[in-house]
Write a structure and sequence with these properties.
290 residues; 2 domains; two-stranded antiparallel sheet; 11 helices; 11% strand
């Protein structure tokens, strides 16, 4: 059997490297993305509440006040942090952005015009440390994949590591416009890694279910294992696509709720840890257990 990697592995690797590079670019001073909105809010309530507004910041200039309740940002309904992150990725410099709030029991629509930021997006060292860790994880994934390109276990392990690097990357405000302005072929290529990140919970479970020995052998079992993750991905993909290529207000509401998707994610993580223990207990060789 040839030790050369098949052609499709190079395409997949290019997708992961491209998406990672785009996100690093979005965090760096090389990208003139939007500056922060300039306010803090509490996401723990049913309607996120503005706690404070920075003097002379974008939020204050738009008329935002402490005590306002966020309803929608740039066409995205905001009820949880994940939805704020989705809205933030659509921020674009110089384009008026609607900000719907609730104030004194009335809905008010403000208009925000974002300005270009200066310097790094994230001054805290923690996100950059996380990004560096993700980079090392991605490099390790590529090393494993191309070191043993025809080994099924190595491929799954590399896929797990590469997707973990994408999945754990900190959110990047304004990344959607940068993605949208890429050449069409390059922009389409990045969706391989993006969709892989969406099914990461299933990859997590799969990795621990086959390492070091497969726990399941019947194909229908794998179909059952993957069905919930594929359903959640199908529910949210149209919205992800619209946020990148269309106006955020055109993004359709997913047919599954965010709490349901979180519940599915939790089941995969818990299931992955359970099969890890089960697989470990099946090992007889003391060297394998190590």
């Amino acid at each position: 059997m040839s030790s050369r990697a098949p052609w499709w592995m190079y395409i997949v690797a290019a997708s992961f490297l491209g998406l990672f590079a785009l996100r690093i670019y979005g965090l760096s001073p090389l990208y003139s993305g939007p500056e922060p909105m300039g306010f803090r809010f509490d996401i723990s309530t049913s309607t996120p509440t503005v706690l404070s507004v920075n003097p002379n910041g974008i939020g204050q200039r738009a008329g935002l006040r402490a005590g306002d309740h966020l309803v929608a940002v740039n066409g995205v309904n905001v009820r949880r942090l994940v939805e704020w992150d989705m809205a933030e990725m659509t921020f674009e410099v110089g384009r008026p952005m609607p900000l719907v709030i609730e104030r004194d029991g009335r809905r008010v629509e403000l208009s925000v015009i974002l300005e270009r930021r200066t310097g790094n997006l994230l001054l805290s060292p923690l996100p950059w440390l996380l990004a560096a860790t993700d980079l090392l994880t991605l490099v390790l994934a590529l090393f494993v994949a191309f070191r043993r390109p025809n080994d099924f276990m190595a491929r799954i392990g590399a896929w797990f590591l590469a997707t973990a690097a994408i999945f754990m990357f900190p959110p990047v405000p304004g990344i959607a416009p940068a993605w949208r302005h890429l050449p069409a072929a390059l922009g389409a290529l990045l969706w391989i890694a993006q969709v892989s990140g969406s099914v990461f919970p299933a990859i997590f479970f799969t990795f621990f279910a086959i390492f070091p020995r497969p726990l399941f052998h019947r194909r229908w079992i794998w179909g059952v294992v993957w069905a919930p993750s594929l359903l959640v991905t199908a529910a949210f993909f149209p919205m992800q696509y619209a946020l990148v290529y269309q106006q955020p207000s055109a993004a359709p509401e997913p047919f599954l709720s965010v709490p349901i998707s979180f519940a599915v994610f939790g089941c995969y993580v818990l299931g992955g840890l359970v099969v890890l223990v089960m697989n470990y207990r099946r090992l007889r060789d003391i060297n394998e257990r190590r």
